[in-house]
Structure formats: C-alpha cells, structure tokens
User: What shape does this take?
Amino acid sequence: MGHTNGLSHRMASKTIKLVDEGGNPVVGKEVVLTQTNHKFLFGCGIFDAIDVANKNVPADRLAFQEQKLDLFLDVFNQATLPFYWAMFEPKKGKPRTKELKATAQWLKDRNIDVKGHPLCWHTLTAPWLLDMSNEEILKAQFARIERDVLDFKGLIDTWDVINEVVIMPIFDKYDNGITRISKVLGRVGIIKEMFAKTRECNPNATLLLNDFNTSINYEILIDGCLNAGIPIDAIGIQSHQHQGYWGREKLEEILDRFSHFGLPIHFTENTLTSGHLMPPEIVDLNDYQVADWPSTPEFEERQAKEVEEMYSILFKHPLVEAITTWSFSDDGAWLGAPAGFIRKDNSPKPSYKVLKKLIKEDWNTNVTCKTDDNGTLSFEGLLGDYELVCEDKKVSFKLDKDAETEQMLIL
Amino acid sequence: MGHTNGLSHRMASKTIKLVDEGGNPVVGKEVVLTQTNHKFLFGCGIFDAIDVANKNVPADRLAFQEQKLDLFLDVFNQATLPFYWAMFEPKKGKPRTKELKATAQWLKDRNIDVKGHPLCWHTLTAPWLLDMSNEEILKAQFARIERDVLDFKGLIDTWDVINEVVIMPIFDKYDNGITRISKVLGRVGIIKEMFAKTRECNPNATLLLNDFNTSINYEILIDGCLNAGIPIDAIGIQSHQHQGYWGREKLEEILDRFSHFGLPIHFTENTLTSGHLMPPEIVDLNDYQVADWPSTPEFEERQAKEVEEMYSILFKHPLVEAITTWSFSDDGAWLGAPAGFIRKDNSPKPSYKVLKKLIKEDWNTNVTCKTDDNGTLSFEGLLGDYELVCEDKKVSFKLDKDAETEQMLIL
Assistant: This one.
C-alpha cells in the first residue's frame, strides 16, 4: 500500500477470522492480502472493444486492437460504450444490438463495469427523426430507451441518460429531432421524461445527467431537477481540456460548486492531450480541425504531470466515484487529438505509466500479516476486491465501506 | 382611440343595451365612451408617496412631493412601494407598518394598484439576521412574510416574493442572512419556501419572481421552479439600462426567451436615463458613483425616443402585463441617475409627455356612437375602465377580455 493520506473516505478496516476445512481457526499463519480491483471506477471510452469482441476487422487490425485492449484491461475497471443513436440505429428498426451486446459481455467477462452513452442527445441523434412530428419523436425516443435499456439490463446498468441539456434547446448548428422536442418540453421537462422512462426500465441502474457546461447554468439546472423530484444518481461532468488543463484551482472550484447537492460526481469524459493546445478562441471544440496533431515527448511529460495531479485531486474528493478518460488511445481519438494514454502505435505514453502506478501501486493495498491465537487478523485497505493467500490456499472477498468481522473458510 | 395596430390582444368588443330608470331602452341617442383606466399596469417606483400620505415632511417639501404625486397620478395606474427589510424593520419588532399602510391606502383611494417589493432579498435585508442561526433566520423570514402579507392584504395583493435569486447564494460583497440560508436551501429551494409561505398568507395574490439576470441562468431557474410546482404568477424582469438602451433586437430576444413559459411577464424595474451612459465595464451598477449625473436636453430627447419604442414593443407583446419605471423622478433616483420622467424640480421631461400621449391618447379608447332602435350599441376598445355619457347621464363599467352583451341602467 502506498499513499493513503487524505483517502480515509476510500478505506475501510476489516477483521477476518480464518478457518480451515475442518472449521478450526488458522492460527499464527502469515497471510498476504492483495487488492485485485478498486471500488472506484477508473474508466475509458473504449469503443475499440467492439472490434475485439466481434472480431469483425481484418486479422492484422484485430491483433492491433487486441494489444490495445490488453493495455486497457491491465489498468482500468470501467468502460464507456457508444450508443449514439445515429450510429447505433442508422436505419430505423435495425439497431446494432447484437454487436454491442457481445462487446458489453466481453468486457463484463473481464470484470469491467460498462456504461452506455448516451440514451438521449441532440448531437448524433437518429437523422430519421426529422421526418416525424414532435409527438412521434418523443414516442420514438421512449421506445429507443425501453428497447436498449431492457436489452442491456445486467450487462449495462449505468447510463448517461441525457447529454448536454443546457445547450439542447438553443443548439442551432443544425436542425434535429431532440432539440425540437426539448424546446417544447423545456430542459427540466425533457430530463424528467427521459429519467422516468429509463428508471422504469431498469429500476436499480445508476442514472447520470451529463454536461460539458460546468457553469452556474448546470448548477441551476441540477437544482431544478432535484427539486422536481428527478432521480439523478450521479452528476456527470465532462472535462475535455484540449485548450489546456484546468489546473487545481479551477478543478477544486468546480468540485466545490457541484458538491453542494451531496450527489456522487462522475468525471465522465476527461481529456488531457500530449500535444499542442487548441487555441482559446475556439468555442465549440468540434470547430477545430487540423491535418496533424502530433504527440510530442515534451507534451507527453506535461500530460503525465497533469494526469497525476488531476486524478489525485479527484480521487481525494469524497463525492467523486468515477473518472473516465475519453480516449484511451490516440488511434481514433476525438478530433484527432493526441488525447490517449497510448500512442497511435499502441506504445504507452508516460501518462499511462503514471496512472498505472497510481491505480495499481500507490492506491492499491498489499499487506502481509499474521493470524492471532483465534485465527483472526485485522487490516485497513482501499475499498475494492481482494485476494487473501495463506500458504497454498486462497480466498477472495470484497472490502466495502461497512465491513464487519467476517469468518472466512480458506481452501 | 389612436393606434391599435397589433393590439388586438389588449382589446375587446362589447355590446351594451342602455335602459333608463323606467326600464325603457334608450333609443337613437348619441353616446360618448371614454376609457378612464387601463387593465395593463403602467407603474413606477414611487416611494415619495410615503411623504405625501403621512405628511411627515416639512411643508415646503410636502408641497413639492404633492406636486410630484399629481404628475404621477395623471399618467400611471400602478405603484411599487418599498419593503426592504433593513428599512422597513431596522429595529427588530418595530416595523413601519403604519406608515406603509397609510401610503398603500392613499394610493388605493386614487385607483392605483400597489405592489410590495420585495419580501425576501439578500441586499438591504435586516442586519440583525446576522446574529441568528440559519434556522432562526428562516423562521424570522417566514414570520416577516406572514406579518406583512397579512397586514397588507386587500391593500397590496401583488408581491415581488423573492428578488435576484440567480446571484443570491454566490453573492459575496458582504455577509448577510439571506445569502446564508439560500446556500443551504439552494436556489429553487428558497424560492419554493418563500412562495409557499406567501401563497398561504394571501392565496389570491399575484406573486412574482424577480431578477436582473436575463440570461439563460434565469430561464433555467424558472424552468426548474415550474417543474418543482412553485406557483409563480408572473415573471419579473428588471431592465435597468443605465449603460444604454437594450434596443429592439435584444428586447425582442429576451421577450422571446421568457415567453416560452406562457406566464405573464412584468417589467418590474425599468430605467432609461436622460444623461450620459454608465461605462460598459461596470458590472455591478452600484459600483458607479458620480458626484453629478445631469439630465441634458440632448439626452432627454434620446430618453423620450427610447421610452416610446420600448413601451410600444412591450405593450404589443401578448404576455407583458405590466411595465414599472423604477424612478418616477430624478429627485432621489437610484444611483443619482437622471432616470425619471420628471426632473429634480418636478418639471416633466419629453419622456413624460411622450408616455402620457401613448397611455392617455394613442392607446386610449374614446368613441362616440348612437344607440339603435333597441337601445343597443357595440364598440371595440382597449381593456380597462370606462365611463359612458349620454346627454346628462352617465354610467361606469369595465371592459374585460370576455365581454358579453350587458344591460346597463343609465341615471
């Protein structure tokens, strides 16, 4: 176990009484406790998992993607999969359910928690909504939620229910079905409808509201939603920092403001690049298009430092429960930015190594202790999954916030 | 009757059957119909009415104030009176109820609709709240609402319930009791509490939310309040334009955005000065302090043009139901600005004359017609109060939206 200063909110103590097959206490034995997973969600947008799970790319590309996924699985425990309506169901009635299901299952089998992103958004929504009346659009959106949330229940129990509502009704780059109905329902109204439908289909799911707007607008919107009784489980905050790292002060100011609600906070879409910064005058990040946006050694060092600081600040904050870096790899990254932890050739950047060290060493509990005369041992560790090894025997267990004395049979 | 283009939403048709004392139809007589008041509220902040109603200033000042009030009464039908807690109850338990009641009664006797401003605000709130716990502050705020709303029921049935909530919890110029509790309750939470208490005390009152913030922040706040079931009767929009007239485009854009809710809109605090403009870099208008801010002939012409355009745009908008100019006179105007319709010496500016012409001539119905063989006449007019004169007899009536054929006895 490494650095646990200021991490008491992520830790628990546990007393274990070890007994053998015969029910006798295991007395005076050395025991090694190893944390195998975090309760905290360290995630990435990892759309490449679709290729790997479905093996529907040429062999050399598949091998490359498999190598990429190995690097991902070595560090992370959460994945965000794309449910952009325009791509998920480009032709009405022909959703890519099978492909995405295979992917979610492939990730679940590897102990990865999967989130679906997003169920409702004005960007990348189904173009065929444009031919419909507002009533038909709303009906289609509900049907989409019902179908997909039910289809993926058990595989995906965390959803970005609705994305970027602050701008939704005033989004004017192009006409789209979702902006149309958001104008009629209003911001809180459309959130209420989408959350109600999603909750109805998966009552125990973790449901997020997600936005890139971190201003007072988003605060007031959340305040309104909560007062209107909308069951938001976690506040999703995007943090695409193509124009430069926010820095400690801004980050803590945002955390402070969004902590007032007492809800869990997920950093849902984080970007820190290892390239030159996007000019500050760009308002919509999508407007910045460059032929080449290289990752450079100098900027890779900067990225590593920023990743280390930002993840450390967030991990220390009691309400933050998840950090998702949006692009795991530079290969295929949004806007062509060098936003990944690994380069286009799958070689890990310094940021990958820094974060792996934080997650797997500094914040990972590994202790050796001895059972007493009653066969009991006590330890304190970061919340998550554990493996206990005693001589040639082992047992797995979970360390949760409310850990009590537990008797374990070791085989 | 003057200019009624685009004013159909402010008009109604009425058929009247005139009968004499004996119940006989008044046949073939010339009838003059004169509008004596508007349904639309044309108001001012007219705190000077306190002096006049209570006669508690020296004789020469009283005469000056009476002259001022005469000019006010000649044009307007609505008055806003101050209920700033710091001034209304500077010493806990000693509210200026008697003075304000006399004033409200004085105005009511002159057919003026009175609004109280405001019941809850972080600025000019009672300084003695600072010694209390948050629970005590909330209790005191409730008690204040209960006392004042009940005391003034029948005299004041329109209230700015809560003022400037967008900035309220992040207001950091100085510590105050209301900002403290707004941080705990949240924006929608404090609005909900204040509206519930006010509504409880005066179920039929017209209750306003009021703000100077006309950005998307205020829109989202209103959206949240309405979805939380808060019974807002009218949206209050401040429009202190010390830094320059908004102009038609901005005004129409704001009207457009705040019309989405379908609620009545009141322009609660309007300022258009007849002096130099406050520099654009000033963010909090209170920060601009000058020794002298003269009203000049050139700028008085500008003010008159702006008043004419702005009032015309607002009067034409179907959801606007009230316009209150914040300072009737330059004498005692907020920030010392030449913001009044009359100068410091009570002489009317061009803006006074322009507005009087709009309210009393252009938008005022005066028609002459003849009763038919059944004693009936039909006319169309602006909504409001009327006097009907036939020879030496007269009768008063109201022209409301749902006017039906009405039999009137003329004496």
About this structure: The radius of gyration of chain B is 23 Å.
